[in-house]
Amino acid sequence: MVPRYARPDMTAIWSPENRLSIWFEIEAHATEALAELGVVPPSAAKALWDWWATNPVIDVAAIDAIEAVTKHDVIAFLTWVAEHVGDEARFMHQGMTSSDVLDTALAVQLSQAADLLLADLDALLAAIRRRAEEHKLTPTIGRSHGIHAEPVTFGLKLAQAYAEFDRCKARLVAARAEIATCAISGAVGTFANIDPRVEAHVAAKLGLAVEPVSTQVIPRDRHAMFFATLGVIAGSIERLATEVRHLQRTEVLEAEEYFSPGQKGSSAMPHKRNPVLTENLTGLARMVRSAVTPALENVALWHERDISHSSVERFIGPDATITLDFALARLTGVIDKLLIYPERMQKNLDRMGGLVHSQRVLLALTQAGASREDSYALVQRNAMKVWESDGALSLLELLKADADVTARLSPAQLTELFNLDYHLKHVDTIFARVFGKA
């Protein structure tokens, strides 16, 4: 985790204090259930909760010192708790294995992280929707392969982004549900030394589902799904960030990141206004996606469990969620303050002498009786002249001067084919699909 790209609420989820607090709750709830089943005395659970009610400071350094001797993190934690709770602490961890604690705690942390990310997505969706509605009918050029294609609106570009991030949210809701599972099933998942009702009790207290069939661990396909979902969200972030970067090119300049008073773009060139935030988002997206492959590789553990997944998850759990949280917040800020230039969009629309209307002329010629092949050739030969003039010539005027074209379409008909509004007639329909009817 790099502090430069971290926000406090998400960082707190991965703090040792939060992790160890969750460990304690798991152990205390399990002891509570064991007491209800008559396996341990009720005084054991009471002693744990009474001590916890005093709001003890979790001494991470002391626990680390014990671990330096035991070489085992859960044993170090249990030893430290026992030093404070006293004799009743011996009833903790009855019939449990370390992974019962570690995996269930990780499920809680990932669920907490998902809740913050879902809130981040809600904020981003709100910002995108506001700007989309603001520019619903702002015409701009659509590009395929980076080349002028046909007119769209800037609002439609943002509506597409909204729909994409709305899908991201739905996936994350599903991934959260899948990762929010509890396993308190003992050394190899058979409940040989602990009643399944203990697992159910702990799961209910922590807001988790029970793992239907575990080994020593919760199966890692769940975690792979979670991190893959984060990777897809990162891909969507990069897609929108890349769009902004392209639109901020000097030759395009249809939109650009907000440039604050006093901001500098280059140590050498005082004139520079660079898309640094969206460039940064592209890099952050790469880092989030870098967690996906190791998460997938963690699925194939040996037999009932090996420990190869552990070191991986100590990295990717905090790093992927903290980075994605920061990235979503940064992208929300970019969209919220994005400078949008409708006049430049119109200028670029007009840049290539009406080439953007070529398909409509093609279709009109076919409807007027020409074959598709002949229609294509007629339009293309005039369009290439416009290309070669770098937009100085007008496609409409060239078509009006082409006898083969005017033999089928009148000048008035040709003029109507160059009406920009034709391309925008279904914007309301698309918006209703994305945002619902007004």
Automatic annotation (TrEMBL):
Top-tier EC class: lyase
GO molecular function: (S)-2-(5-amino-1-(5-phospho-D-ribosyl)imidazole-4-carboxamido) succinate lyase (fumarate-forming) activity; N6-(1,2-dicarboxyethyl)AMP AMP-lyase (fumarate-forming) activity
CDD domains attached to this UniProt entry: Adenylsuccinate_lyase_1 (cd01360)
Cellular component per GO, a single term: cytosol
Record's catalysed reaction(s): N(6)-(1,2-dicarboxyethyl)-AMP = fumarate + AMP; (2S)-2-[5-amino-1-(5-phospho-beta-D-ribosyl)imidazole-4-carboxamido]succinate = 5-amino-1-(5-phospho-beta-D-ribosyl)imidazole-4-carboxamide + fumarate
Pathways involved: Purine metabolism; AMP biosynthesis via de novo pathway; AMP from IMP: step 2/2; Purine metabolism; IMP biosynthesis via de novo pathway; 5-amino-1-(5-phospho-D-ribosyl)imidazole-4-carboxamide from 5-amino-1-(5-phospho-D-ribosyl)imidazole-4-carboxylate: step 2/2
Residues of the Adenylosuccinate lyase C-terminal domain: 353-435
Family matches, as InterPro entries: AdenyloSucc_lyase_C (IPR019468), Fumarase/histidase_N (IPR024083), Fumarate_lyase_CS (IPR020557), Fumarate_lyase_fam (IPR000362), Fumarate_lyase_N (IPR022761), L-Aspartase-like (IPR008948), Pur_lyase (IPR004769)
Record family assignment: Belongs to the lyase 1 family. Adenylosuccinate lyase subfamily.
Protein's UniProt name: Adenylosuccinate lyase
Organism: Sphingopyxis macrogoltabida (Sphingomonas macrogoltabidus)
